[in-house]
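#struct-pred

JT: dropping the chains for the assembly here, can someone run the whole complex?
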Amino acid sequence: MRSSVSRLSLWLLLTPFLLWIVLLVLLPHLQMLRVSFQVRESWDTIAWGIEQYQNFFTESYYWRTFVRTGVMSLFTTFLTLIIAFPIAWYIARLARGRSKGILFLACLIPFWASELVRTYGWMILLRESGLFSSWLQALGWVDGPVEMLYNDVAVIIGLVYNGLLFMVVPLVTTLDGMDENLVEAGYDLGGGHGTVLREIVVPWAMPGIVSGCIVVFMLTLGSYLTPVLMGGKDSAWFTEQIFTQFITRFNWEQGAALGVLLLVLSSVIVWLGLKISGQSLRKVMG
Amino acid sequence: MIRSVPRSRLFDSLYLAYLVAFFVYLALPLLVTAVFAFNDAPFPSLPWKGFTLDWYFADGSEGRTGLFHDDGLLTALWVSAKIAFWVTLVSVALGCVNAVLFERVQFRGKEFLYLLMLLPLVIPGVILGVSILVFYSGMANDISAAWGIELDLFRPGMTLVVMGQVTFIATLSTLVIAARLRKFDPQLEEAALNLGATPLVAWFTVTLPWLLPSIFGAAAMAFLMSFENFNTTVMLTGSDTPLTVALFNRLREGSTPVLNAVALLLMVGSALLALLVMGRSSR
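RK: done, full complex below.
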């Protein structure tokens, strides 16, 4: 009697979870995988094949964008970590009392605006008729309007901006829990700043670093607005191609194949990051 | 570099300069967006032509249509609000059930299911949208071709957008609520049971009130994330475009201060919501 009641309640609790995971995550992704191996021969006949994947490797535009997106996402993640670490260190270890809370909140404020609004703000600043251009002209440093938008630097500025919060928060959380005696001991034993950072601080902060990097990398790799709105003609992003296949060309088979490739890329890099740093997804995310 | 280790003056001032530069970098884009919502000029750029509220209230008679007379944007705002409402409701309900499942029940395969629960966080948003589009819209197409039954529910539109957003927002709300439930002392619930409460009564009078702050937090977060989401939404939206997609389409045509007006409204709205939740949870 008792065990059948607990079995029943277990199933009652499991059902919503299973419906969510199976209907919204597993089945759709399996179907995407299936569609990516379909080849449309005419409007109502379908054969199986790997043509969509062959297209990816033979058309240099596809795989070049793919590699570019991956490399630029890694670079953005690294840059975000470098920029965020001193800030997180200051908030967690050097700021005291009220200023600590205020600085932490100040880091969160930009993220009450959506990615679209943030990107729009950068466009107003960077474009030819934008603020930076006007200011430089007013200062007399340049003669005419300068276009600072529509290039890779602009895209990276925007992407780093979007990722910062997701880097600062986990870093502050892990650094906050660090025992300062460890750092003092490091200095007492004759370590310099570099040694203490490398041997004590970074190993301690590793879970935060990995979780921040994973989230920022995922967001960057999958971002669409920032590269599309701030990038130039040559700075295509891979998500843009997926969008084009699905929405503009109605070529679902090709789009599904590109989607699978993006998913594989992100999974492989996340897995590698966890392996190299010796962390587990549960520890880092949960 | 901790407080007890002496630092040089130069280092301190460089560090301070870096902090200031960082916060300027954070604030600048939002600040200019907000300021140009009030510039009396047809484009959001310098020079400053004076203060105006036209971009909110102009009724179109002088060639300017303010936000509150712009039917397209107002409709989109309403669509976004409806989507966000349903996403919040479903995600928070799922989050509560999942939190109990993972924090209070022991069963075989729990570790594996927990990893499955985290999965949506490591899938790019575009892919979540695309996979749901392929599965449900494809199914609607097949059913229509085979039996002539039209399942408009599964065509791109509001239902699919809600489903797509719930996919990952439910994970986040689960994590928020589970974190709070982990700190709950089960003895309180046992005390209620010993005093004669049924499990259901104990849940509603002891456990749920404890969880309430996290439920409000999760709800506010879900609402904001749904309202602001673009990547998943854009793949699944039909003719009733939500605000972010509508803004994106406007932005591609060219920017006007009306966009700044909407952006400022959104920022103020999310700030108020966030303050409300923080005020509640700190009490």
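JT: nice. Chain B has two domains: 1-69, 71-282. The mean pLDDT of chain B is 84.
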